Amino acid sequence: MAQEHTVKAFDEDITRLRGLIAEMGGLAEVALNEAIEALIKGNEQLANGVIARDKKIDALEAEIDRLAVRIIALRAPMADDLREVIAALKIAGVLERIGDYGKNIAKSAMRVENRRKFEPLTLIPAMAEIAGEMVHDVMTAFAARDPVLAREVVHADEKVDAFYDSIFRNLVSHMMENPASITSAAELLFVARNVERIGDHATNVAEMVYFAATGTYLTDRDDRQEG
Questions:
Q1: Is residue 132 within 8 Å of residue 34, measured between CB atoms?
Q2: Per the CATH hierarchy, to which homologous superfamily does domain 2-226 belong?
Q3: Where are the domains of the chain?
Q4: DSSP structure class, residue 216
Q5: Where are the beta strands (DSSP E) in the chain?
Q6: Selection from 133, 143, 153, 138 nearest residue 227 by Cα
Q7: Up-side HSE of residue 174: CA atoms within 13 Å toward CB?
Q8: Do residues 150 and 156 lie in contact, with contact meaning Cβ atoms separated by under 8 Å?
Q9: pLDDT tens column, 15-74
Q10: Is 79 exposed, middle or buried (0-12, 13-18, 19+ CB in 10 A)?
Q11: Is the pTM of this model over 0.85?
Q12: 70-89: pLDDT as tens digits
């Protein structure tokens, strides 16, 4: 009877942990989407909302940390279960960083002047859409323990990097031709860099999900051999 109670309590803790990770990932995804919308429209209210909600993401990370430590200390999980708890602990830290990047973009959104003059403003939303899909897909992969979807997220990062390279070249050329716009162009470059980092972090989460699901690491060499 005591064994059944322990197993039930452990399952409840794991379910709670997964739920917190899912909530945190959802907030991080929304932060990116709304920060980009604020950038495009120059919507200060939307940007301020993103900045304010970052505290919720931080609070969720702290709650996940406490729960994961408690599970390890009290439930002594092994094998697959231990990998999942450790992965959740690491993923929470990465999602907190993604939330920070969304906050950074929201802050930059209000510093861009004459936004209609910048061609990269047509490229950054497309880049951010891919990065947002990566965050969404990697959270789906975590919930389903799906290593195949996790691998697809890793591949998608190449598209984000290609966008960043294109935007970087475009903005440098724009700054050289329009010295008066250097400040705003630099803010857009900062935005693009933050989106690129979100893609990198989604890739990191995908690698953790892959490990939690399979017990093996998804290295570049292994990925090429399997893909």
A1: no
A2: Phosphate transport system protein phou homolog 2; domain 2 (1.20.58.220)
A3: 2-226
A4: S
A5: none
A6: 153
A7: 21
A8: no
A9: 999 999 999 999 999 999 999 999 988 899 999 999 999 999 999 999 999 999 998 888
A10: exposed
A11: yes
A12: 988 887 777 778 888 888 89
